[in-house]
Design a protein that fits this description.
- This protein is of the alpha/beta class and 176 residues long.
- Helices cover 43% and strands 20% of the residues.
- Strands 3-2-1-4-5 form a five-stranded mixed β-sheet.
- The longest helix is centred in the middle third of the chain and has 20 residues, at 77-96.
- The radius of gyration is 15 Å and the shape is globular.
């Protein structure tokens, strides 16, 4: 199964593409990286960079499922709103290709990858490196987080309780 993991952000958005062999519980890294915009870039341009970038990744690698991080912000509502808008264009790109989307809370991803839901970024990076047998630490941490999301999706599988829901839920049968 080919899985696309997404760590949403509006300045830096991480992505990771993995092939997962369910029979051998093995991974192969296809690609990972980030979409980035310079400080001071107009917000509309930042969203466009993310949208065009994810469309290229989906077209090039043709994943079978996308895993995206559920947003959690306790203080900075401005950042939360902007990140939510970036997340929206990522979900739109998936919906346009009928790519199933699953969402996970950061604590779920950390627990799946490290065994501890409150692991720090460095622990997540080290475990992603270990699980995927990478020679180097995956960087930046946005890309490592995206790979961690893809690993979490592989371990969790297509459970309906993690399928994108709420105001973002969509039913493709409505488009047929």
């Amino acid at each position: 199964m080919r899985i696309l993991g997404i760590d949403p952000g509006y300045a830096i958005c991480g992505y990771g593409v993995l092939d997962y062999d369910e029979n051998n519980a093995g991974f192969q890294v296809v690609d990972y990286g980030t979409f980035q915009s310079r400080e001071g870039t107009a917000f509309a341009e930042r969203i466009l960079i993310i949208y065009e970038g994810i469309r290229q990744i989906i077209k090039l690698y043709q994943p079978q499922v996308m895993a995206i991080e559920e947003l959690f912000f306790s203080r900075n509502t401005t950042t939360a709103i902007a990140t939510g808008q970036a997340r929206g264009v990522l979900i739109l790109a998936a919906a346009q290709t009928r790519l199933p989307v699953y969402e996970y809370k950061p604590v779920q991803v950390k627990k799946a990858v490290t065994g501890y839901g409150r692991a720090d970024k460095k622990q997540v990076q080290l475990m992603v490196q270990t699980i995927l047998k990478l020679d180097e630490l995956p960087e930046p941490d946005d890309a490592a987080d995206a790979l961690a999301l893809a690993i979490c999706q592989a371990y969790t599988g297509p459970r309906p309780d993690f399928k994108l829901k709420g105001a973002y839920n969509y039913d493709y049968s409505l488009f047929e």
